[in-house]
Design goal:
The chain has five helices and ten strands. The protein is α+β, with helices and mostly antiparallel strands.
Length: about 250
């Protein structure tokens, strides 16, 4: 997310289509909940659990309104019907109607699918105003978009679309925390810098230990996992660089 106004949000129940519920993620039963899909923070889709959702508090309405406005404008600007967007994104028409009507908080997984369909990142859907020449994001503004089973969190510090799609995240993973991520769009790369502790990153089945002060760069267009096997909390900064262009999941 990119701005301040959309910093926090609170969890909400699943959507009427049973596929998703709010600015959130999918549950084990393909149910999407609040913005915290245990998904990979940066755009992608997968199945999550209820506890992995969030957006975080009363600012939820601001986020809902921004998302509703941008999704509708991006869709109409391409002259796509709701059915077309549903087919391209894999998000049900019923959920899209709820989102455009600002009646629900979609999960991170749902937002990722929609954003990828338009060829933008999640932050674009949360913009509350035109991009300024200079932007300073307050320390308490970045929303928590992922929560792990052991209490870990992922905050989207900033996301931009021009001249490239880039997202900057801060993750905190307590001992025993882990996160499995599906492959992202082809060409996506992730760079992770460990500020504290250590994690094990598994890419294509191969494990790579990363310690404090080290940085790992890998292709994220394949399944990957993050795991804190140490006995201290791991704190890391993640940069996700995604290819430009719309994505059609029917292809």
């Amino acid at each position: 997310m990119q701005h301040g106004a959309i910093a926090r949000t609170v969890a909400q129940p699943v959507g009427e289509d049973g596929q998703d519920g709010s600015l959130m993620a999918h549950g084990p039963a393909q149910v999407e909940h609040f913005i915290g899909d245990g998904e990979h923070a940066p755009c992608r889709i997968t199945i999550l659990t209820v506890k992995e959702n969030i957006l975080t508090d009363d600012v939820a309405q601001v986020a809902q309104a921004a998302i509703a406005r941008h999704v509708k404008a991006l869709r109409q600007g391409r002259r796509w019907s709701l059915d077309e967007l549903a087919s391209r994104s894999g998000v049900s028409k019923g959920m899209l109607v709820q989102i455009e009507g600002a009646k629900t908080n979609p999960s991170v997984g749902t937002l990722c699918r929609i954003a990828e369909s338009f060829g933008v990142n999640i932050g674009r859907l949360l913009e509350s105003a035109p991009e300024p020449v200079v932007k300073i994001v307050g320390a308490d503004e970045p929303p928590v978009l992922w929560r792990g089973g052991a209490g870990g969190t992922g905050r989207l510090l900033r996301g931009v679309n021009d001249p490239a799609f880039v997202e900057v995240w801060q993750w905190r993973m307590p001992p025993g925390e882990s996160h499995d991520s599906a492959d992202h769009a082809g060409g996506t790369r992730e760079l992770i810098h460990l500020q504290q502790g250590s994690i094990v990153v598994t890419v294509d089945g191969a494990e790579h230990a990363v310690h404090a002060g080290e940085t790992i760069d890998f292709r994220a267009d394949r399944p990957h996992t993050y795991r804190n096997a140490a006995d201290v909390e791991a704190v890391l900064t993640m940069v996700v660089v995604m290819p430009q262009g719309e994505r059609d999941r029917r292809a």
